[in-house]
């Protein structure tokens, strides 16, 4: 019995549809039929149709296989490569908070530790 695909928000569906359309256009530019892509990817023609339609029920593996057949698998390295949110969180953690008091160093004690008198 086929599983029901998960609920997808409209923005996510739009992203999948746009990806599918780009894959369809890439296939057509290469003058490949759905049947040829399906055979080379090791998936069914129905799966290729689902990928090109941006169907959320198509597995990530199916998308990867179609990308590989089209020679676009290198683009996967760009996904989530620049985690801007994590960078902002790290930067905030590095900033001194307003409650933190800076410790004043006594210049003479610093000289004594370094061997200067």
Automatic annotation (TrEMBL):
Molecular functions (GO terms): DNA binding
- Which parts of the sequence are annotated with region: Disordered? 90-117
SMART domains documented for this protein: HTH_XRE (SM00530)
Residue ranges of the HTH cro/C1-type domain?
A: 23-76
Q: Protein name, please?
A: XRE family transcriptional regulator
Coiled-coil spans in chain: none
Bias (Polar residues) occurs at 106-117
What organism is the protein native to? Answer: Ventosimonas gracilis
A matching Pfam family: HTH_31
């Amino acid at each position: 019995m086929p599983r029901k695909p998960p609920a997808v928000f409209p923005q996510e569906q739009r992203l999948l549809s746009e990806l599918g359309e780009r894959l369809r256009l890439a296939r057509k530019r290469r003058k490949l039929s759905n049947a040829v892509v399906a055979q080379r990817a090791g998936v069914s023609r129905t799966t290729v149709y689902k990928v090109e339609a941006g169907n959320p029920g198509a597995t990530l593996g199916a998308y990867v296989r179609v990308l590989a057949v089209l020679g676009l698998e290198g683009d996967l390295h760009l996904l989530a490569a620049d985690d801007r949110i994590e960078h902002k969180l790290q930067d905030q953690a590095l900033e001194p908070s307003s409650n933190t008091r800076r410790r004043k160093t006594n210049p003479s004690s610093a000289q004594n530790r370094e061997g200067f008198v």
